[in-house]
Design goal:
Layout (H helix, E strand, L loop, with lengths): L5 H13 L9 E2 L1 H7 L2 E6 L2 H12 L2 E8 L3 H29 L4 H8 L7 H11 L9 H17 L5 H16 L12 H10 L1
Parallel strand pairs: 2-3
Antiparallel strand pairs: 1-2
Helix pairs in contact: 4-6, 4-7, 4-8, 5-6, 7-8
Pfam families: NAD_binding_11, NAD_binding_2
Protein name: 3-hydroxyisobutyrate dehydrogenase
GO molecular function, one term: NAD binding
Length: 201
């Protein structure tokens, strides 16, 4: 149930079939909260019959299980998930920076935004953690960067230019490669702005 390149999932499935082993790729989303509450989202690639046999097990740890197609499809779905999260995490980070600069109460801002069109999982789950200076990982930043690199490699292979995702990858590279914060959660991205500000003063 790890996240990998779709091509690797396909190779593992092919090897399994040659040896009489049925393989599914089934990466998950939902972070530590989803794991603790058994509300993960499971994205599956592989054979329909095998999927139906294993689905009851997936349902014990998740609120949503979906078969997307043959081997590798679950990994492609996970890449779509990570592309979306890249946008919500950078948006959350810059929202809080703007809120602080404007002199607004960040708790009030998060509460208001969570009731409108800006509501999203990152806002609801990671916004409060940032306000408490809690950067413990629901998902390690270094693992997220690995996923963004895979997503962009796949996008390039398909002839797509995902410039916003590429910018998110660049920001996480600064967080991890420059400041060594890879063991923080993805919400730790906000720390690169405070470090940059201190260096410029």
């Amino acid at each position: 149930m790890t996240t990998s390149k779709p091509s690797l999932a396909q190779k593992i499935a092919e090897h399994g079939e040659r040896n009489g082993i049925h393989v599914l790729d089934a990466p998950v989303s939902g972070g530590d909260v989803g794991a603790k509450n058994a509300t993960l989202t499971v994205m599956v690639g592989g054979n329909e019959k095998t999927y139906q046999q294993v689905k009851p097990l997936f349902e014990k740890i998740s609120k949503k299980v979906t078969l997307f197609g043959p081997a590798g499809s679950g990994q492609h779905a996970k890449m779509a998930n990570q592309i979306m999260i890249a946008g919500t995490m950078t948006g959350l980070t810059e929202t809080l920076l703007y809120t602080k600069a404007a002199g607004l109460d960040p708790h009030k801002v998060l509460n208001a935004l969570s009731a409108g069109g800006a509501q999203n999982w990152s806002l609801s789950n990671y916004g409060p953690r940032i306000l408490q200076d809690d950067y413990t990982p629901g998902f390690f930043a270094r693992h997220f960067l690995k996923d963004l690199r895979i997503a962009l490699q796949e996008a390039d292979r398909m002839g797509l230019d995902l410039s916003a995702t590429a910018n998110a990858k660049r920001l996480y590279e600064v967080m991890i490669d420059v400041y060594g914060l890879g063991d923080q959660g993805t919400q730790g991205l906000i720390n690169i702005y405070s470090k940059t500000t201190k260096e410029n003063n």
